[in-house]
Amino acid sequence: MWHSGLLAALVALPFVGAVLAALLSSNARNAEAWLAGTVALGGLIITASAYPSVVDGGVVRHTIEWVPALGLSVSLRMDGFAWLFSMLITGIGLLVVIYARYYMSPKDPVARFYAFFLAFMGAMLGLVVSGNLILLAVFWELTSIFSFLLIGYWHHNQAARDGARMALTITGTGGLCLLAGMVLLGHIAGSYDLDVVLASGDLIRAHDLYLPTLLLILLGALTKSAQFPFHFWLPNAMAAPTPVSAYLHSATMVKAGVFLLTRFWPVLSGTPEWFAIVGLAGMTTLLLGAYFAIFQQDLKGLLAYSTISHLGLITTLLSFGSPLALVAAIFHMMNHATFKASLFMAAGIIDHEAGTRDMRKLGGLFHAMPITATLAMVASAAMAGVPLLNGFLSKEMFFAEALAEHQDTLLDGVAPYVATLAGAFAVTYSIRFIHNVFFGPRPADLPHEPHEPPQWMRRPVELLVILCVIVGIIPGIAVGAFLETAAVSVLGDNTPQYGLYLWHGFNIPLLMSVIALVAGLLLYWQLKTYLRTSEEGPPYFRRLRGQRIFERILVTVSWRWARALEAALATRRLQPQLRIFVALAVLAGVWAMWGAGDRWPEFTARGLDPVLGVLWAIGAFCAVAAAYQAKFHRLAAVILMSGTGLILCVSFVWFSAPDLAVTQLLVEIVTTVLILLGLRWLPKRDEEIYEGVDTKTRLRRHRDFAIAVAAGVGVAILALLVMLTPLPPTVGDFYLEHAYSEGGGTNVVNVILVDFRAFDTLGEIVVLAAVALTIYALLRRFRPAEDTSELPYQQRDQNEFDDARMDREVGETVKDYLLVPSVIMRWMFPVITLLAAYLFLRGHDLPGGGFAAGVAMAIAFLLQYLAGGTRWVEERLRILPVRWIGFGLMVALLTGMSSFLFGYPFLTTYFQYTEIPFVGEMPTASALLFDLGIFSLVVGAIVLMLVAIAHQSLRMKRGKAPRQTSEGGQS
Amino acid sequence: MELVIAAAIGILTASGVWLLLRPRTYQLVIGLALLSYAVNLFIFSMGRLRVNAPPVLDGSSPVDVSAYTDPLPQALVLTAIVIGFATTALFLVVLIVSRGLTGTDHVDGREDG
Question: What average pLDDT score do residues A443-448 get?
Fold first, then answer.
């Protein structure tokens, strides 16, 4: 039995190869080709070895759970159909790798080419073996992205960039539609698992959401397979290197669309909607593609339109909804991949050896490259559907299906005529390809002297052409079994009886083939001279170019409409945005309360303590006054704000939260210092200027006042409602019960922070560190505004005083200012350090902890700055706050990771009580180490922020006076 | 008791929101600080107000849950206080830098009501 893990290996192998290829030197052509070839060959061997497991409807599954709760898993699934595609992807991939080795110029950076190529192969393999709808959509988008990179490989070329962008825009949009369709499909079927979805066809077709689902999935498939009206990206993608075209536009990328249609054919097809949409798109594409192909002057352009047409043929077959048509479709996918890949490679050889792809300049190359010419002739005969070649067989099957009645509609009625006409066009462009390039007079002005290519560049073409012939002559023996395997895996019990024979006797399909051959030949005869000199593109349709329409739409949507929308709805001003934001929040609150009107708790004014009332009267006064004063009296506003903070701190004590009170008090101190440091850099504001307030401003203020009051009242009511509702049992009870027995601490708040919810805390200290570093980075290269660069008024006054006195030097007064307090502040350093240590050590059992201790320690450093000035401190003390931050983060992380050593998850804690001399019994939990990390980080972060702001005054002086000291400290 | 705290939360919120809607950056910083007081008090009050029931255990076992306050809102608020300081600092610095770069302390970086 084939091991299902190989399925994962099959998908992973190309991606690993891609990474390796990207790491190789960019001109290691041989090494790259060997690597890519080995990967493709490995994939081919793995796939081939899976054949016994998928024959007769067998399915190999391999599931790696991802988010099982959401029904998402990396589930891989290979059945006969996926097997067939995997063979095409890896097999033709191998041939293209060999071909590309000789095609790519030594000047091209091949590492990038092979890396993208292999990644694309991996995405394509992942797509065909996906067993989960979402996974399928992910791989689908990956193919779009890597094809974008491959088409734009020669990114110095404008056409390559435009073509790549267009391909990505169209297939990427289609991919998004597909994702939506997949979600709907999964919703209808109740599972994202492909097996479940494939088994619920009746349910899906009868569902109300069938039509939207169908439309979305078809948008994905038709864009990918370049079906009308989305076909125009494919000719523009011909700016890609030819190996890319040979791979993407014959066997893989464009086949993904029809692969998807076939994959979901059992669940989606058979309805009138399916036939109408898919059939119309397919037949239009079939006919238009073939017609356009005749009038192309670029060899690859001709092949691109021919590909579009053949994909239209496959789509038409799929639209019929009959099992036999499905078999024909699968058969044609194989055949088309074979002959089209070889034709693209042949076109590449001609381009490579003759120096141009323009058919007006080419001619008479048969004598220069007879072998290539013969190969190309056989391959184009297969494309035209000439008997004894594989293209003929699937085309006959198509004609037979087109004749058969499927649905009694006009579309079904015209199918045989469309098929015959398109067949005739196919003959015309195939003859043109051969006759124009290899026969006729040989032009004298070819860029290169044409000759046969290196023999290994031709080998892949030879192999593919031989396959075309073998399949064409002995189809049953050569591919009958594989086709059967693929068909059974899609159709199951509905697989029809059919026979792959070269000769079906004289019947109408044969007659249609003959008509097409003769008509095509005659048409070419008529057009021959015109085509020798005509412009690119078919007559009449030349002006109607999809590309131009696409670009116009793109400009309209992404530029004009977007601008209009932005002008109508958006603003760059902050105030209106905040106003809307707050107003909406208020409305949402009102709406919620409205609905809960009958569930309001009974109001009880219990225990109204007059002291608390007085306290908060002060607190509220401070808050309102701060709000009132913040514009003109900034210092007053800071002081008032701190007043509110202190009342808050008292409330925390009042309501049994000692930890919060300690932290709030300490943070209040640093916040005040911080804002005081910042005040210096704000512009002066004169009250008189703003005296004359116009009506508009007054109106706006009234409105803002109303919004603010509404917000305040709303929040107050909400808070009151919650507080009056009895507390249900919460997770807090769990923490209370287990803090001591499992966390080893009696201060539950601290145990939560460093033990139960340590991962949250880790995230929070990372935020703190990030903010500190941001502040540091913002201020590092910044110089304050000019008008704030003068010395403060007080210092100027003091210097003037010194200047006027004979016995004093300028600067002495400034230096001695507040001498006594600063001496006391210096002495405070050891005291506060001790306090910090005390807070830290008791934290696990009593109020305190790393946060509070960290802030206290930072205050100790700050006081030194306040007392001595920045320079004085930094001449004596190197604080290096960034290292404190780094050390703290590292300690916290390492403590968390150390639990891995004992086989526990991240941040599992360990504790025991130990006796430390002179200190007493100490809880030495690993959480204490974590708390040490918090402590160190908090110290570092706060000191870094405040010192960065403090340093502003130094920089400005440095700009004026000569440098006195080198860049001090860390900041 | 609850009424006082609810009113306090309301007044703090209203003052903060009022300042948020003002045009000067410094008003914004003070407003955010006031608003963060309100929010901290609000989160804290979600654990209900208890007098004389600290979240520090007395070491007895089994633990009588009803004798203690809910420690979880306290833990949340504790980190919120420190993070609140950090954001105030960040806004203050953005204020200073924006003032230096644009020459104005208007929130939009240019004058015009």
Answer: 77
Q: Containing H/E element for A835?
A: helix A819-842
Partners of B17 on chain A (C-beta within 8 Å) are 582, 707-708, 711-712
- The model's confidence at residue A190, banded by pLDDT at 50, 70 and 90, is confident
Q: Which pLDDT tens digit goes with each residue over A699-711?
A: 888 999 999 999 9
What b-and-e string marks burial along B61-89, b requiring 16 or more CB atoms within 10 Å of the CB?
eebeeeebbbbbbbbbbbbbbbbbbbbbb
Nearest to B38 among A652, A715, A941 (CB): A715
Q: How far apart are CA A756 and CA A750, in angstroms?
A: 9
- Among chain A residues, CA nearest to B65: A733
Own/partner long-range contacts of A409-412 (Cβ < 8 Å, ≥24 apart): A409/A272, A409/A275, A409/A276, A411/A275, A411/A276, A411/A279, A411/A280, A411/A283, A412/A275, A412/A279
Q: CB of A656 within 8 A of CB of B53?
A: yes
pLDDT winner (highest mean) among A542-546, A753-757, A854-858: A854-858
Is the confidence at residue A48, as pLDDT, over 50? yes
Residue A970's pLDDT is 37
Among candidate residues A820, A830, A840, the one with its CA nearest the CA of residue A860: A830
- What's residue A936's pLDDT? 94
pLDDT mean over A590-599: 76
Q: Where are the domains of chain B?
A: 2-51+69-102
Give the burial class of A47: count Cβ atoms within 10 A of its Cβ; 0-12 exposed, 13-18 middle, 19 or more buried: buried
> What is the predicted pLDDT for the residue at A956?
60
Q: What's the pLDDT at A126?
A: 93
Measure B51 CA to nearest chain A CA, in Å.
5
What average pLDDT score do residues A708-729 get?
88
Encode pLDDT of A281-301 as tens digits.
999 999 999 999 988 888 899
Q: Identify all chain A residues contacting B43, using CB atoms and an 8 Å cutoff.
A: none
**Burial code of A198-210, b = ≥16 C-beta within 10 A, e = fewer?**
bebbeebbebeeb
What tokens appear for A610 in the block? 């007059």
Provide the 10 A C-beta neighbour count for residue A191: 17
Q: A385: left (phi > 0), else alpha (psi -120 to 50), else beta?
A: left
Instruction: Give percent above pLDDT 70 in chain A.
Output: 92
pLDDT interval class at A967 (50, 70, 90): very low
Phi/psi at A64 (nearest 5 deg)?
Answer: -115, 115
**Distance of alpha carbon A7 from alpha carbon A59, whole angstroms:** 11
Nearest CA in chain A to B45: A723
Are B51 and A655 contacting, i.e. CB atoms less than 8 angstroms apart? yes
Scanning B42-101 for CB atoms below 8 A from A yields 42, 44-59, 61-63, 65, 68-75, 77-79, 81-90, 92-97, 99-100
**What's the whole-model pTM score?**
0.67
Q: Is the dihedral of CA A301, A303, A308, A309 positive or negative?
A: positive
Q: How far apart are CA A14 and CA A30, in angstroms?
A: 18
**Strand A60-67 relative to strand A72-78: parallel, antiparallel, unpaired?**
antiparallel
Q: Three-class SS of residue A855?
A: helix
Answer yes or no: are the C-beta atoms of B41 and A657 closer than 8 Å.
no
Chain A residues lying within 8 Å of B37, measured CB to CB: 623, 644-645, 648
Range A666-685 average pLDDT: 85
Minimal Cα distance from B53: which residue of A?
A656
**Residue A636 in tokens:** 């007053």
Please report, for chain B, how many H helices and E strands are present, in that order: 3, 0
The ipTM value here is 0.95
Task: State the DSSP string of A422-477.
Answer: HHHHHHHHHHHHHHHHHSSPPPS--SS---PPPHHHHHHHHHHHHHHHHHHHSHHH
User: Maximum Cα–Cα distance for chain A, whole Å?
Assistant: 127
| pLDDT at residue A961 in the model | 41
